[in-house]
Amino acid sequence: MSINSIDLSEIACVSSKWDFKDDVATNLNDQKKQQAAARRRIEMLKEIRDSGLTLEEAKELGLLH
């Protein structure tokens, strides 16, 4: 397909049908990934606390960045 064979009216028609739900779904996936990362970090901090290490010791061991 050549760039010259693209019908601009067809592009306009398709772009007018853009669904807001597509953008919302993408944002929800990003939020879920961030929430999962936060849960993992909280669990890691709990495990460090339970092991008796201080945060400074955990950083020295490379457990925290």
Give a written overview of the molecule.
- The chain is an all-alpha fold and 65 residues long.
- Helices cover 72% and strands 0% of the residues.
- The radius of gyration is 24 Å and the shape is rod-shaped.
- The model has no long low-confidence stretch (mean pLDDT 81).
Describe the biggest sheet? none
Count of helical segments? 3
Whole-angstrom Rg: 24 Å
Query: What is the H-and-E element order?
Result: HHH
What oligomeric state do these chains adopt? single chain
Q: What is the residue-mean pLDDT, rounded to a whole number?
A: 81
Shape: rod-shaped
Brief summary of the model shown:
This protein is an all-alpha fold and 65 residues long.
